[in-house]
Design goal:
The complex is a heterodimer of chains A (about 425) and B (about 450). Chain A is of the alpha/beta class. Chain A is built from twelve helices and 24 strands. Chain A folds into two domains: about 325 residues, Aldolase class I (TIM Barrel), CATH 3.20.20; about 100 residues, 2-Layer Sandwich (Alpha-Beta Plaits), CATH 3.30.70. The chains are: A alpha/beta (about 425), B alpha/beta (about 450). The complex binds flavin-adenine dinucleotide, flavin mononucleotide (FMN) and iron/sulfur cluster (3 copies). The site of one iron/sulfur cluster has 15 residues of chain B, from helix 3, helix 4 and helix 8. Chain A: Heterotetramer of 2 PreA and 2 PreT subunits.
């Protein structure tokens, strides 16, 4: 078993799997059970100011999107930050941290955008023994309307300002949690860095409406005939989160900024992917909410088996490993030619590849009288759609054409050298290589 | 020359070679990678899952299925094998329709459970085929334990003890290890030498020495073992066979079903195993069904399984009964044997029909037979054993017997179903109790 010990901005945990700030980390009872189940750390459910806590709706706060067999793919919520008094949360955090010194405990905070408010809460948090703080600039509903959460996260200047206050008033490491509800994630990430953030974490949830009740004509989740947009999370948001993480990781301005990856992490593989794209660790919410705390066991066994297979001895060896391979479209090798190939032994003759290619792509799949499906190399542009729609894993594969062979579609010989759009003859702005 | 199925008497080679091979091949062919992923995807990862509760070895089923679903079948295998070192054999022979799969919530939802047994086989086969043994031994404790019987109970106990750092000697009366895995389980459940391959793989843990052809009561005594070792685990199964108690039982052609099955399991060529044209099997358990089905597969023309009570009382599961029926075995219920007729060799068997209270009805049945297999239960053999309870060694928690330093488990011990998986569970649990006792940490 590989050693999964993690050190994220100086915060140690036995593995890189943290629970994100959300219902799973809402109270002492949950967090103790999460640690017993094996989670490496938690970001406590977001704390608010002293005084009467916020209130949540008393009807449904979640809506869901399902895949086949009612597998939950996306979750939407209209929950606010903690609705329990600050003192209670602080007392519980202190007790938990005392009993689990080897686990990471991070306090998530959201108070109004005023220096005094931040200055007031930080010493109390420090007193719990928490390992760090996470600034919740991401919550897209309810809190934003009060000038907090994503209302701050959408204004880079505010991010920078609040981050700076926090760095000024506490010695704890500061993680800035980013909202994806923006045009370009680099602006808030750069602002966090300018403010002195030790790390960013992303993504928080995405503005969404999961469905509409077609009898009552109201969005879901519905409260007394009305609904509001909520925050979307779960497996469905992973691609969006991965891209944002990668963008920050490869942006020269933010390249050295540690990232805690969040958004749809459900299996060890998701976690490894986030880490390869630049995340130093990952946070999980929906997967725990769907399957319970126990899923961390699969994450632990899966990641350590993967590391053993690869000969990695530390999780750091995964972190950023794929970042150099994330590039811009115009850098992709246009001399790289592939063709789809159908494994006739695996094919079950469903014809989905045919429908997809014939109706919507390049008419590059032939169907015989006896339902044999095969790729017409003369027509195949290698778009990958058939691979994506085929129900049998590895039944259709993309085969790379060897340099020197002739692409039957274009009649051209596959060139061995790399050549991208910037030098392509069709590009009006092409510069000949010097 | 290939004999016809119509040839009377007990003869070998009734079928052609290809038919034998097809008949005795895997009952459930292993899942391919695609099938395994589709099957794994159906698991809901239930909380405090009922399938785990239903497994006598408490395998964490949702976890191992999720590990398969996430592309780590080796991790799945470790999850299985850490609870049940014979997870490979159990995946093949467990009556899953009465255990984990019966409890599966998708059995309740759709009448189609998650294919737990087959997924278990998928995970363990992958790892074992590569010869990888995922466990290592703890530092040597200096303690030594003797185990009597190299069946599932004995080997599971031995493996766990070896893992915990003890030295283990296993004594078995037979020339090969495995117990009924090797000499009893139906051929089509464990073809291609899997039983021996599994034992070889299990022994890779190290620290276990097998002593073949060493029977307790013949070559060694319990007293000697108690003297020479720090602990003794009795796992000799049930060596004896119940008699019919009818006239003519001694006629040629009347055999113990377990002996017929053992002969079959040890045969390298099914064409060399003789079988009757008209076969009668008496009994209602797994042994009876296995003998009947395999007689049919060997080419017997008429095979009749006769049981004294109704189908619902048969020990063989409905799945096993259906399997027998699908192979062409006729099942007769509510009939008890009264006499075996024949001149030297059996010619027919006479039964009387009985009611639910086993009271004779006066109605008789005569079945033509050139072979009769008795499968009406096995019994414990041996003298000087610890105290018995209902014909088996009385055990309490952790397999403790009435004798200090002597534990027992598997078929020879009281309690539990006579199944491979229960034998494994009892062997493992006894090992934990022996360990605690030897290390002075027992409660
Ligand atoms: C025909 C048949 C089919 C079966 N099919 C199934 C099935 O499909 N699924 C299932 O779950 N269960 C099945 N069972 C039951 C299962 O095989 C047993 O419950 C299980 O093998 C019991 O394990 P054990 O270790 O207690 O004993 P055994 O497997 O009987 O092993 C006992 C060992 O002890 C040795 N031994 C005996 N006496 C002595 C002695 N005096 N000294 C030294 N060694 C001795 C024997 O040689 C043997 O190796 C079947 C049983 C039979 C008979
Ligand atoms: C019900 C619910 C409540 C949440 N509350 C908070 C919160 O209080 N503070 C916060 O920073 N993020 C909150 N989140 C966002 C999660 O921490 C996380 O960023 C998001 O769900 C994406 O991760 P996932 O796909 O693993 O769920 C909440 C999410 C959910 C589903
Ligand atoms: S999950 Fe629990 S709290 Fe929520 S609606 Fe169901 S029963 Fe109520
Ligand atoms: S989609 Fe896949 S399985 Fe279906 S016909 Fe095409 S290649 Fe065969
Ligand atoms: S009961 Fe069925 S669905 Fe639930 S965990 Fe067990 S195998 Fe999976």
């Amino acid at each position: 078993m590989a050693n999964l010990q993690s050190d994220f901005i100086g915060i140690k945990s036995p593995n890189p799997f943290w629970l994100a700030s959300a219902p799973p980390t809402d109270k002492e009872y949950n967090v103790r059970r999460a640690f017993e189940a094996g989670w490496g750390g938690v970001v406590w459910k977001t704390l608010g100011m002293e005084g009467p806590p916020v209130v949540n709706v008393n009807g449904p706060r979640y809506g869901a999107i399902y895949g086949a067999d009612r597998r939950l793919l996306g979750l939407n919520n209209i929950e606010l930050i903690t609705d329990r008094p600050l003192e209670v949360n602080l007392r519980e955090m202190k007790a938990v941290k005392r009993d689990y010194p080897d686990r990471a405990l991070i306090a998530s905070i959201m108070v109004p955008c005023e220096e005094e408010a931040w200055k007031a809460i930080l010493p109390h948090v420090e007193d719990t023994g928490a390992d760090g703080i996470e600034l919740n600039f991401g919550c897209p509903h309810g809190m934003a309307e009060r000038g907090m959460g994503s209302a701050v996260g959408q204004v880079p200047e505010y991010i920078e300002m609040v981050t700076r206050w926090c760095k000024m008033y506490t010695r704890m490491p500061v993680i800035v949690k980013l909202t994806p509800n923006i045009t370009n994630v680099l602006y808030p990430a750069e602002a966090a860095k300018r403010g002195g953030a030790d790390a960013v974490s992303l993504i928080n949830t995405i503005n969404s409406i999961t469905s509409v009740d077609l009898d009552l004509f109201a969005p879901e989740p519905m409260i007394d005939g009305k609904g509001t947009h909520g925050g979307y999370c779960g497996p469905a948001v992973k691609p969006i989160a991965l891209n944002m993480v990668a963008e920050i990781a490869r942006n020269p301005e933010t390249a050295g900024l540690p990232i805690s990856g969040i958004g749809g992490v459900t299996t060890w593989r998701d976690a490894a992917e986030f880490m390869a794209l630049g995340a130093g660790n990952v946070q999980v919410c929906t997967a725990a909410m769907t399957y319970g705390f126990k899923i961390v066991q699969e994450m632990i066994s899966g990641l350590s088996e993967y590391m053993d297979d690869k000969g990695f001895t530390s999780v750091d060896q995964i972190v950023r490993r794929a970042v150099p391979n994330v590039t811009d479209w115009n850098q992709l090798n246009l001399n790289y030619v592939t063709k789809a190939k159908i494994d006739q032994d695996l094919c079950i003759s469903c014809g989905r590849c045919f429908a997809a290619c014939e109706d919507t792509s390049h008419q590059a799949i032939a169907m015989s009288e006896d339902r044999t499906f095969s790729v017409i190399d003369e027509e195949c542009v290698a778009c990958n759609l058939c691979v994506n729609v085929c129900p049998v894993e590895d039944c259709i594969t993309m085969e790379t054409m060897a340099p020197g062979s002739v692409d039957p579609r274009t009649g051209q010989t596959v060139a061995p050298e790399y050549a991208n759009w910037t030098t392509h003859p069709n590009n009006p702005a092409a510069k000949a290589a010097e | 020359m290939v004999q016809d199925t119509f040839t009377p008497g007990v003869v070998a080679g009734r079928l052609d070679q290809d038919t034998y091979e097809a008949q005795f091949s895997d009952l459930h062919p292993p899942l391919g990678a695609h099938e395994a992923l589709v099957a794994a995807d159906r698991c809901y990862f239930c909380h405090d899952a009922p399938c785990i509760t239903a497994c006598p070895t408490d395998i964490d089923i949702p976890l191992f299925i999720r590990q398969i679903a996430t592309g780590t079948p080796d991790a799945a295998a470790k999850t299985i094998l850490s609870q049940n070192i014979m997870g490979g054999m159990c995946a093949r022979v467990c009556p899953t329709e009465q255990l984990c799969e019966q409890a599966c919530v998708r059995e309740a939802a759709e009448g189609k459970p998650v294919l737990i047994g087959q997924l278990q086989r998928y995970a363990t086969d992958n790892l074992q085929a590569r010869g990888e043994h995922p466990f290592t031994r703890a530092e040597a404790t200096g303690k030594a334990v003797a185990i009597v019987g190299a069946g599932p109970a004995g080997l599971a106990c031995g493996h766990r003890l070896a893992m915990l750092g003890h030295r283990v000697d296993v004594y078995d009366a037979r020339p090969k290890p495995g117990g009924l895995n090797e000499y009893g389980i139906a051929t089509y459940k464990t073809p291609d030498g899997f039983a021996q391959a599994e034992v070889d793989w299990l022994l890779k843990i190290g620290g276990i020495t097998l002593h073949h052809n060493k029977a307790m009561g013949r070559d060694i005594t319990l007293g000697e073992l108690q003297e020479d070792y720090d602990g003794v685990f009795l796992a000799m199964g049930l060596g004896g066979v119940n008699a019919l108690g009818t006239t003519g039982e001694d006629k040629a052609g009347v055999l113990n079903a377990v002996d017929f099955i053992a002969e079959l399991r040890q045969a390298s060529d099914m064409a060399a195993v003789p079988v009757g044209r008209d076969v009668v099997v008496i009994g209602g358990g797994m042994t009876a069904v296995d003998a009947a089905v395999q007689a049919k597969l060997l080419g017997a023309l008429n095979v009749t399984l006769v049981y004294r009570r109704g189908r619902d009382r048969m020990n063989a599961s409905p799945f096993e009964q259906d399997l027998a029926a699908s192979k062409g075995v006729r099942i007769v219920t509510h009939a008890v044997p009264v006499a075996v007729h024949g001149n030297g060799a059996v010619r027919d068997v006479e039964f009387e029909y009985v009611d639910d209270a086993m009271k004779g009805t006066g109605q008789m049945l005569r079945l033509q037979a050139d072979q009769v297999f008795k499968a009406i239960g096995q019994t414990l053999e041996g003298d000087g054993l610890p105290q018995l309870d209902g014909g088996k060694i009385a055990v309490s928690q952790g397999g403790r017997t009435s004798l200090d330093g002597v534990w027992a488990g598997g078929d020879c011990a009281s309690g539990g179903d006579d199944l491979t998986v229960t034998a494994v569970a009892e062997g493992r649990d006894a090992a934990m109790d022996i360990h605690a006792t030897l290390m002075g940490t027992a409660g």
